[in-house]
Design brief:
Elements (H helix, E strand, L loop, with lengths): L17 E4 L6 H17 L4 E6 L5 H14 L3 E7 L2 H10 L4 E5 L8 E8 L3
Parallel strand pairs: 2-3, 2-4
Antiparallel strand pairs: 1-5, 4-5
Length: 123
């Protein structure tokens, strides 16, 4: 495991989410780092489980797999709900009583975009 800090392309870090062009500004390594970082924050807050969903973009399953690697490396269990709309992830966080959730989605952007929207659970 590398002890060097992960470097994100600064253009992907937004006020409410993380989003960019897959293969250009967003990579699997970013998804792994996001999972590890979010997972660490959830664990520090006493959490143990998060829900994860992703949209139907071709890049989403690969980014989801990398994000799950990061989340599990942080010591969390992941409830992977698979392909879903963002409101379905919000529902899953509460229905499955998880401590947070990550939605991988490019939202309204063109197909070559993808990104991450995080939310904390009930705690």
């Amino acid at each position: 495991m590398s002890q060097t800090a992960h470097q994100f392309d600064p253009s992907i870090l937004r006020e409410y989410d993380i989003r960019g062009v897959v293969g250009d500004t967003v990579h699997a390594a970013d998804a792994r780092a996001i999972g590890r970082t979010f997972g660490t924050l959830v664990r520090r807050g006493g959490g143990k489980r998060v829900a994860l969903g992703y949209d139907g973009r071709l890049s989403s399953p690969g980014l989801a797999a990398a994000c799950v690697e990061g989340l599990t490396a942080a010591g969390l269990d992941v409830v992977n709900i698979g392909i879903a709309a963002t409101p379905m992830l919000y529902y899953a966080v509460y229905h499955f009583d998880t401590d947070g959730g990550i939605m991988i989605t490019g939202s309204h952007n063109p197909p070559d975009y993808n990104g991450f929207k995080m939310m904390m659970g009930k705690k």
